[in-house]
Every structure is written in structure tokens, then in C-alpha cells.
Amino acid sequence: MLKNTIMRWKLPLVCFIWETAMIVLFGVFARYDIGADPHWSEYKKANNISSDSENDFYYRYPSFQDVHVMIFVGFGFLMTFLKKYGFGSVSFNFLLAAFGVQWAILMQGWLHTFEGGKIHVSVIDAGGSMTIHTFGAYFGLTVAWILHRRNLSKSSSNEGSNYQADLFSMIGTLFLWMYWPSFNSAVSNTGDAQHRAALNTYCSLAASVLTTVAISSLTNKSGKLSMVHIQNATLAGGVAVGTAAEMYLTMYGALIVGFICGIVSTLGYVYLSPFLSSKLGLHDTCGINNLHGMPGIIGGIVGAVTAACATVGVYTLDGMNEMFRFTGDFAGRSPSTQGGYQAAGIFVSLAFAFVGGTIVGLILKLPIWGEPSDENCFVDVVYWELPEEEPDDVEAAKQYVTHAPDQFKEINKD
Amino acid sequence: MLKNTIMRWKLPLVCFIWETAMIVLFGVFARYDIGADPHWSEYKKANNISSDSENDFYYRYPSFQDVHVMIFVGFGFLMTFLKKYGFGSVSFNFLLAAFGVQWAILMQGWLHTFEGGKIHVSVIDAGGSMTIHTFGAYFGLTVAWILHRRNLSKSSSNEGSNYQADLFSMIGTLFLWMYWPSFNSAVSNTGDAQHRAALNTYCSLAASVLTTVAISSLTNKSGKLSMVHIQNATLAGGVAVGTAAEMYLTMYGALIVGFICGIVSTLGYVYLSPFLSSKLGLHDTCGINNLHGMPGIIGGIVGAVTAACATVGVYTLDGMNEMFRFTGDFAGRSPSTQGGYQAAGIFVSLAFAFVGGTIVGLILKLPIWGEPSDENCFVDVVYWELPEEEPDDVEAAKQYVTHAPDQFKEINKD
Amino acid sequence: MLKNTIMRWKLPLVCFIWETAMIVLFGVFARYDIGADPHWSEYKKANNISSDSENDFYYRYPSFQDVHVMIFVGFGFLMTFLKKYGFGSVSFNFLLAAFGVQWAILMQGWLHTFEGGKIHVSVIDAGGSMTIHTFGAYFGLTVAWILHRRNLSKSSSNEGSNYQADLFSMIGTLFLWMYWPSFNSAVSNTGDAQHRAALNTYCSLAASVLTTVAISSLTNKSGKLSMVHIQNATLAGGVAVGTAAEMYLTMYGALIVGFICGIVSTLGYVYLSPFLSSKLGLHDTCGINNLHGMPGIIGGIVGAVTAACATVGVYTLDGMNEMFRFTGDFAGRSPSTQGGYQAAGIFVSLAFAFVGGTIVGLILKLPIWGEPSDENCFVDVVYWELPEEEPDDVEAAKQYVTHAPDQFKEINKD
């Protein structure tokens, strides 16, 4: 069984084929957008742009970098809470993100800027779609459910944190928390919408922290706090405010959303995850359902309601049309219709997540993937050359035994 | 005594009441400022603003994010140097900061933008007031002095670092050091003042590093360096240059300030802290007096002198009036008067710190707060569910004993 | 021998003399540039600048901060992979960087803005010169080669990582990786060149990650990955694209550069470093040759070829002249000549590196520097007061022995 885990040919082959494909696809399709092309100077002149500060780079690059810190440091370190899976957490996240960003450039190009057989790459649109959390969470959970192992409990001693691992994980949490306002505002229209998206996210996140701490203490019989709640549920407010962040949610509205999601998410860790694991065979190691799933659904509802309540008085007519893209084919759509479509969108993404997750789960169940045995889940040693740990403990035990023989004699006298 | 530490009802109650109060107060008072309001487009037109880049968001958001990294990652991790208090350090800092930012939005709104019963919230003013370090340090030290425990030495084995904890702490130090120029310049006037504040802070910080290393080595009988100095005293230059950062301090002036403060702060750790603890009963675990207290006072004096020396030739008339707010009621005030007022301000903030600290200290002495017993200070286990550590050592000892029985026999022969 | 390592007078003396020299030199030479001077307002009026956003501070400060994170957190933590040298890694990097930035301000001032006996300091130019990696790497390697110790193997048990140290090191890797686009674009011309430099660097880095993982797995007999490759070779793409980053390299060109350098760098760690160490006596602890040396040379060649292929059709005439500085004395130079000069530049920097490294190496061989003995390399204890580690293991061993005396009796029965 362990033999399966040897990745010596599979992993390099996947990496080389993928990257070669990327080079070919970029060669065929990708071109610098005008802001990154030497003809920018001519474009500036032709369009009466007086300053380089109008180059999209200066508007988008700081947010883009913040979102990168979230993806690479934030998610990478958040997952190091597993005491024996730190190398895998931070490095496989790194590998997948490096895959992902290249693929994202192509996909977004094909969807948005495909013209004359080419796509035009500017500063990369780093995400924040309405349904990313809900879709991602339930897609992944469906895959996990299908891949469920009856005997995973053999690895249960590995599936936990230790003191250092929990501190590494907090590096991830804090960078995610701090830069979530950049994430939710990264793709907003410039000006007031972007400004508002950052403010709303910030308020919601702050409220989450307080209710997470409250519920964490309240659900422990000694009132003690749990690090897994602080590491995760404090971020739920950022997820839930995603859809409505750039809308006129109001700041106290954002606080209420964060207030509720801190509670729901922490309760999920305390009660729902153990229930799903023992009763439904859904093993959710890092609590995706609590951090992205439920808060994502709440966020979808909040977004739909906030959209349905939009008025011209609040947004101005131009503002409303720009915010909800009531232009082109959608000109004249009413806010209540928009709210209905957004609500329907939640169900559509859930359906896609379940169907897609089932298909991918079944593919991953094929016995060709080199997965670790039931005893070897959550441990780096399967895929990593680990540094030799010095036998400090043995050395210490030896010294103790050598230097305190009297006690041993005493023990052995009995 | 230990029973007191159960926070199961107290902590959740405080969190819920506080956050509910925030929601109500935000609902009543807080409104989006024009830069975050959909009427921004109309405002732009009415005020002949041609580009979204003039929205305050684009001037302030990067500095705002830097300051957030300082507060959440910087201070949170700086305090993880305590080997058994890492969870508390990083998480209680997180909780207090999430409390604090909401309160700060309201307070600053009431003080600065209260109009027609509402406050107008834009990108948040993240601080940097003239007296924040001095006031904060001596307020906290007064509280600590009143709360002094006669038998704290029972916890002395807990009050220390270990190798990993000191490295985690350096994450905090470095992010504080790097972003201190953003902190000191965050609330400066845009343009040359902000530019100058960043430059001066940077020079002062760099000089602090060198003199900290020098004194750390010089005061150790083997010339060995101490991590606690590197973690803290290297930042003293940033504190001390706070008041004068945006003034025409000159770069060599900033270097001199940093030079002196690296020395004073490190000497404080080596000689003053132990003296205060043993003779005056003032126990200053993380050396607040050395990092914020004394450098804050030095900074106040530097600021007063630099202000008193201001001339129209250096600043231009407009520049001087703008820098020192010689407008409205203060029109026509002279630099030397300004310097005198700033010097007086140091004493006023010290007085407020001692009086306020005494009151709060006495309140915290009331036996209702669930403080840990004298044996249980500086340890997470009082307030946290800790991960079960694997009995690696025991296991190692067992294996050693099992596999090397000869030595044991030998021992027991004696 | 150990006596030599006492730095009590040498280190403080060096710090004080250096910092005092800095204060004097800054006092004599350094002045605020116009963007940081109170006369900025008058300058704006005189030059028809309408907005403070045109102050260089707002263009350069975010990149400047990113590069600082790379220098202080990135390189500082990357080097903490040595399990017993974490304090030295992060702190000596901190000290040298604080030295370095002050020196850099002066040097760049003398070279670029010296006028009327003064230099004018604005936001600091953080580097990225064409030959920085190649020169730095081979300079350092030459020094290391001259300082080679025959008996370094006595320290070989210290020269390695452990699980926690490798995770700390990944903090460094990720911040370097994420901000490398800022580093390569920090000193580019504003507008399209800066935009393009960030994009190209990003593509090259992403490709490096995939081929690094591939080769790391492929060269291990069980297909297991090695952390040292992930920590270092993933960055090789950023080094190699440095020279050509702002040129019209095309994105698939950048992907190809990263693809190749991930392979070359990882192979260097696997095969070349052990060979150089055992055969040539060149001991390269952190693989400088693999991360900066070889990728730097590749980058120089890529830059020379890309420059030689430049055409007016791609760059526009103005763009080409601005990109390659074909102005003043260089007006009319052809791209192919430029490419030739750049290729020659590689050899010039290699020559300077070898000669300079030899001289410095010989100076460092003088017996006045207090270097550690052969047994004490790679350990903090020589230069640092280390925290006392609690005898947890001993305690655990003791408890085990006390609570399980039966087994001991059994052992002793034999």
C-alpha cells in the first residue's frame, strides 16, 4: 500500500506537462495589455492621459500584492496547524497556487479579453467572485465525502496540532484577516465602491472576532478558549460580507453580519463538524464548512437581500446601474429582480459544487493516485525527506539516568 | 483561587455587550464619508475632481494596511517571546485590537467629524499621536505597579523565552521595524511632510539597530548578544522620532536620536528593569518603560526643541503654519511658544497616565476579575485548551531504557 | 581558540565608529530632496504640478516597502533553516541590512545626485542592478572558498535543519517570492516598463515552482520532496529574469526562463553543491551558487539576447531609447551593440567578484576576527545568550521512571 505513495514519476510528469502546456498556451494566446506594452506612451497621447499614475498598475498592484500574501502566506500557514503536516501544508499550497495563477490568467483572458485570437494580460484579477466560497467549500466537501475512509481513525493521533504549529497557523490567520478588505475590494469599481468594500469588510471582520471569542469560551465547560476557533471563525465575517461588500450595506449592517457569522462558525466547529464526521462520514479536517460553507451561504443571502433593497435615492441612478451592471442586456432590470437572480445563483453554485465534486471525487477514487495508507494520513513523512531530529530526549534521559542513579536504586529496591 | 479564572460567563458577556453596543452606536452615528458613498461621482463632478485617484482611499489605504500589520502581526508576535504564553499573546492582542479599532472609529468620529448628529467614516486614522507612547507606557506601568504581587516569583520559571519563542517574536519585531515609517507618516499631511516623516523615521530606526547591538554586547561579560534587546531596543528610534518625524529634523538629527535611544533602551533592559522590579515592585515583563516610556519622553523633548527652532526660512510661511497648525485660534503663535506648549504636553500626559493608571489599577484590584494565581502567571493553560503534546520524551526515555538495559543494570549494581 | 570569539569590545567598537561616521557624513552631505522638503509646495506651483499624488513618495513607497520586507523578513527568515543558528540568521541579517541601507543612501547619493557638495535623498532606490546577483554570489563564494576550513566536518552535525526551522525558513521564502515582482520593477521607469517588469517576474517565478517540485521529486530515489529545494530553487526564476524583466521578453519567454532555472537550480542543490564541497573545498551552506550564481548568469545572457533583439517596431523609437538609455553619449547605439555590452558586463562583474572576493577573503583570514572554532560553526551559542531550555525531557524521563517502576524492575531482573 505504501508503495503507491512513491511520486517519483507521476509528480514530475504532471508538473512538466502542465508547465509546457502553459508555455505553449501563453505563446499562442497571451499578449501584454496596453498598460504593459511599450505603446503605452502613444496610447497616453492619443487618449489625453497626462500621468503614468492613471496606468492600471498603480490602482491595482497594492491590492494584488495583498491578495497574494493571503493566498501564499495566509492559506499556506493557516494549514500548518497540523503538527506533522507543516511541510505539506505550506508547500502544496505554494505549488497549487503557482499552478492556479497561470491557469487563472488564461481563463480570465479567454472569458474577458479574448479578441482577434489573443488575450490581453494586465494586472491580474485576483478573484472575489460572488460564489467563490460557497462553490469552493461544497465542491471540496463533496470530494472529501466521496473519498471518505472507513479506517481514517488509524491516523487520528496525527490529526492534531501542537503548541508551535498553532502559532505558525496564527501567522496565516492574521495575514488573512488584515488583507481580507483588500480581497473583497480588489475587483470593485475604483472610487467609492472600492472604498466602501474595504470599510464594510473591516467592520464585519472586527465583529467576528468578538463573537468568536465569546462562543469559544461559552461552549467550553471551563470557559477556556480554543485556538482552532480563533484561527478560523474570526475570518467568517470576511467571507459572509463578500457579496454585499461593495453595496450600501451600511457599517452597522456589516457589524451584524460579522456578529452572526462569528457565532455560526464557532458553533459549527464545536457541534456540527463532530456530528458530520461521526454520523455522515464527512471528515472536514480544517472546518471548511464552518469557515467558507455556511458563512458563504449567509453571505449570498445578505447580498441578495441588500441588492433587492437598492434604491435610486441611496445609490444615484448612475451608481445603481454601475454597481449592479444594469447595462446592455440587463438595462432596466429592477433591484428586486436582481435580488431574486442572486438568490437563485446560490442554488446554482451549490448544484454545480455537488455535481462537480462527485465527478472529481469518483475520479480520485481510482486506484492510480498514490494516496497514503490509512495509518499515514496527515503526515509529511510519506512525501517528504524530513530532517533528522536530534535525539535530544534520549540524550536527556540518558543523562538523567546517569546522574541520578540513587533514585533508580531506590525504585529498584521496592 | 484557580476557580476564579473560569471565564465561561464573564468573557462572553463582555464580548456580547460590547459588540451589541457597537452595533447600536454605529447604527445611530456612523455614516459613510463622501469618498465611500455612492454620491462620490456627483461630488467629483461638483468639485471638478477628474480622477478616482484623488479619493482619499488611494492616498491612505497602503499606510493604513502597514499600520494594521504592525498592530496585529507586529505587536501580536512580538509578545510571543514568553514560552508558555504564545496563545495569549497573539490572541488577546487580536481581541483587544478588534475591540479597539471599532471604538477608535467612533471616538475619532465624535471628536473630528461630528456634524448634524452623525459621524463620517472614511479610511481610518490609525494613530500616531504625539503622546501615545508616553501616555500608554506610563498608564500601563502605573496599573502594573498597583497590581504588583508579592509572590510573583512563584511564576518566575514561566516568565522566560525559549529558542522557538524568540524566533516567533522576531517576526513581530521585523514587521514593526519595517512599517514604523508608515506609522509615523500615516497621519501626516500629504506631500513633503509625509515623505519627510517616513525618511526621518527610517534613519532613526537604522541607527538604533547599531547601538542596540553595541550595548547588548558591551554589557555582557562574554560579549554575547541578548535576543530581548534585539527584539525591542532596535525599535526605540521609531518611538523617539515620532513627534518630530514630520518636522525638519534633518536626517543626521534623526540618526542622532536613534543612536541615543538604542543606547538608553538597551541600558534600561540591562540595569533599570531589574532595579525597578527588585526595589520598587514594578514588574515590567516586556520592558515597556525601555521601549515606549523613556524613548517617548526623549521624543517629546526632541519634538519640543525642533518645534522651537522652526524658522520661516526652513519651512516657508505656509509650510510652517500648516505643519504646526498655526491657524484659526492659533494664528500668529511663535515657534518658541509652540515648543513650550509641546514640552508642557509631556508633563500633562504623564500626569494623566499616573492618575488614570491609578484609578484603573484600583478597579482591577477588585476581587471579581478571575486573575490567575501567583503560580499560574505567564501560562496559557489557565485560559486555553492546549493541544495534547505527544509524550515524545517519555516515549524516547522508554525506548532508551528498553534498548540500553545494560547501563541500567550497571547503575543498579552499585 | 574559543576565547577569540568574545566580541565584547570589537563588535561595539565597530558599531559605534560606523554609526558615528554615518552621522558625520549625513550631516555634511545629505539633504532632503525637493519631494521631502517644505519647499515642495513652492516647487509644485512653479512646475504646474496640481496634485500631491505626483510626489515621488506615492509612486515609490509601496515598492520600497515590499523590497524592505524581502530584505529584513525574507532573507532574515530564509536563513533560519539552520536549527541552531536562527538567532544569528535573523539578527545578523538585521544588523547588516541596517548598516547597508545607510551606506546605500550615501553611495547612491554620491553617484547620482551629488550637486554643490550635497546629495539629495528621496525615497531610497532599493536596488535591482543588472549584476547584483552574479557579483554578490561569486564575491561571497570566493570569500568562502578562501576561508575554507579543513576540519569543518567537526561542525557537520550542526549544519542542518529541523522541522520547525524549515517552517520558519518558508516564511522567508514566501515573502521573497511574493515581493520579487516589486523588487524587479522597483527601479523601472514608471508606466508600461514597471508594469511589464512585474508581470514578467511573476510568470518566471510561477514556472520555477513547478519545475523545482518536479526535479526535487525526480532526483530522490523514493520520489520524496526536499524542503531546501522548495525554499530556494522556487526563487531562481525571479533572479534570472532580473535583467530582462522590463524588456519585451514576452510572458512565455519569462515562463521559459523560469522553467529552465527551476531545473538548473534544483540540480545544483542535488549534484553540484556536494561536488564543489568535497572536490574543490567550496562549502556553500545555503546554496548561493544555485540560487543567485547560476540563475544570475543565465539572467545576464537572457538580458543580453533580449536587448540585442530589440526593434523599433516592438518598443517604438522613444520607448527603445528610454529603455536602453540610448541618450546623451549613448545616442544612436544599436540594440546588437547594446546586447554585446551587456554580455561583456557579465564577465566584468565576474572578474570584479573574484578579485574583490580574494582580497576580502585574505583580509578575513587574518587572525584578529574572533571566528568560532571548527567545532562551533553554525551555532548561536558562540555569540548569543541563549534562553535556558527547561529540562522537559529530563522531567518526563523522571516521571516515567517514577510511575513505571515495574518495567525497570523487570529490566533489572535480567
TrEMBL record, chains A, B, C:
One Pfam family this sequence matches: Ammonium_transp
Subcellular localization(s) per the UniProt record: Cell membrane
Keywords per UniProt: Ammonia transport, Cell membrane, Glycoprotein, Membrane, Transmembrane, Transmembrane helix, Transport
Family matches, as InterPro entries: Ammonium/urea_transptr, NH4_transpt_AmtB-like_dom, RhesusRHD
Gene3D superfamilies the UniProt entry points to: Ammonium transporter AmtB like domains
Ammonium transporter AmtB-like domain boundaries: 103-371
Any GO MF annotation of the entry: ammonium channel activity
Entry's transmembrane regions: 12-32, 63-82, 94-111, 131-148, 160-179, 199-218, 251-272, 293-317, 343-364
GO biological process, one term: ammonium homeostasis
Record's GO cellular component terms: apical plasma membrane; basolateral plasma membrane
Protein name: Ammonium transporter AmtB-like domain-containing protein
Organism name: Eleutherodactylus coqui (Puerto Rican coqui)
